[in-house]
From TrEMBL:
PANTHER family: PHOSPHATIDYLINOSITOL-GLYCAN BIOSYNTHESIS CLASS F PROTEIN, PHOSPHATIDYLINOSITOL-GLYCAN BIOSYNTHESIS CLASS F PROTEIN-RELATED. GO terms for molecular function: oxidoreductase activity. Transmembrane segments: none annotated. This is NAD(P)-dependent dehydrogenase, short-chain alcohol dehydrogenase family. Keywords: Oxidoreductase. It holds the Pfam family adh_short.
């Protein structure tokens, strides 16, 4: 995809792999909409991009641990731009940050499910009109190889909580949503794919979790960029990638009944009308 004149939104782009991806897209000529919670980090990135002679990114501050924050972000992007060619849903929290104990979001939902999955789900739905109007356009969901099946009797993990299970469940939910949304978007010119960018990249999330990094941010970022702009995947949709290659997700991702249950639940939790 030629990025000249394209508008892209990258959530969670003031640090880590999102920061790398945003900088690369700006260098390729895109108008980059960056998102995060920390205005100082956003300014550092904007100064860096501008210092290299590229168009300064536009910063949107939003806390995606609240559905109101996701709605405000979508409303601001929609109000400020006539097109959106690429949406990279990258914002997330790890299995051990901001702590390993069970926490809830502003809306009362299990925190990792809320931040890693539900806010991205809501953002995608709210941004679809803009993405469809800009077709051909793409959605990239940054997921993980760490996946755990959802227990629909206890999606919020009120019993036997573990941060690693919560993280893995939220990432599988992202992949299930990707497959589900791809079928809904057939014929619209909007594609959606998910990926595990790289294993334990050298990011704040990984280091805060007490894990020794084994991959670079550049490795993961290049895998995300491949799905975002690669010509060879322009017609691909509803797929899960491990790095640069198509891969198989957890079997629950391919269970249409489970995906339907997740979609119905997600629409209800996000305050969207049922199908």
């Amino acid at each position: 995809m030629n990025m000249d004149g394209k508008t892209v939104l990258v959530t969670g782009s003031t640090d880590g792999v999102g920061r790398y991806v945003a900088a690369r897209l700006a260098a390729a000529g895109a108008k980059v909409l960056i998102h995060g919670r920390d205005g100082a980090r956003a300014k550092t990135l904007a100064d860096e991009i501008r210092g290299h002679g590229f168009a300064e990114p536009i910063f949107y501050q939003a806390d995606l641990s609240s559905l109101a924050g996701a709605r405000q972000l979508a409303e601001a992007v929609t109000a400020g731009h006539k097109r959106l060619d690429l949406f990279i849903s990258n914002a997330g929290i790890g299995s051990r940050s901001p702590g390993s104990e069970r926490q809830t979001s502003a809306d009362g939902y299990e925190l990792r499910f809320a931040v890693n999955y539900l806010s991205g789900f809501l953002l995608a739905y709210l941004l679809l009109p803009l993405l469809k109007a800009s077709a051909p356009s793409r959605i990239v969901n940054v997921a993980s190889l760490g996946q755990h099946p959802l227990d629909f009797d206890d999606v919020m993990l009120t019993r036997g909580y573990s941060g690693s299970r919560a993280y893995a469940q939220s990432k599988l939910a992202q992949i299930m949503f990707t497959i589900d949304l791809a079928s809904q978007l057939e014929g619209t010119g909007v594609t959606v794919n998910a990926l595990h960018p790289a294993t334990y990249m050298n990011t704040t999330m990984v280091r805060e979790g007490g894990i020794t990094p084994i991959s670079t941010v550049e490795q993961g970022g290049d895998a995300i960029l491949h799905l975002a702009v690669g010509d060879d995947v322009a017609a691909s949709s509803g797929l899960f990638f491990n790095g640069m290659r198509p891969a198989q997700a957890n079997p629950q991702a391919y269970d249409a009944v489970a995906r339907n249950r997740l979609r119905a639940l997600s629409l209800e939790l996000a305050g969207l009308p049922p199908d």
